[in-house]
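Exercise 7. Given the encoded structure of a 132-residue chain, write a plausible sequence.
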């Protein structure tokens, strides 16, 4: 059994972390898959998806700060759209996740959540979820 589900995420700012755990879990439940894998993919070059702490709201801010230190905006960048730092952050974090499904639910740790990461917003973004 395979199921594909899509949903949109509306980001609010230049950098934004949005918890999408609930939406992904809904896709898993709707799939009917009890044991398998769930792939989450974002088809964007300036947005990413990651698993990280879901309890402390300072974690997204801190990770963004660290990514800004790794990839600050630099006037030496040549990309004409002016968002090279966003492309770099997306490459570092990545466009997809593979998660385990067991008992019809995502297998996540106590403090883990699935986060959509915006690096060039605000925008409306697409998330694809495939459950196998």
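Solution.
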């Amino acid at each position: 059994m395979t199921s594909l589900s899509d949903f949109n995420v509306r980001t609010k700012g230049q950098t934004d972390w949005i918890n999408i755990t609930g939406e992904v879990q809904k896709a898993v439940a709707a799939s009917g898959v009890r044991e398998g894998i769930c792939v989450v993919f974002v088809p964007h070059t300036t947005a990413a998806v990651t698993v990280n702490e879901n309890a402390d709201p300072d974690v997204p801010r801190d990770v963004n700060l660290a990514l800004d230190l790794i990839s600050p905006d630099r006037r030496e960048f040549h990309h004409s759209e002016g968002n090279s730092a966003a492309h770099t952050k997306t490459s570092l974090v990545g466009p997809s996740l593979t998660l385990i499904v067991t008992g019809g639910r995502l297998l996540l740790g106590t403090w883990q959540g699935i986060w959509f990461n915006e690096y060039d917003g605000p925008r409306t973004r697409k998330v694809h979820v495939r459950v196998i």
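Remark. The mean pLDDT is 92. Students should compare their own answers with the one above.
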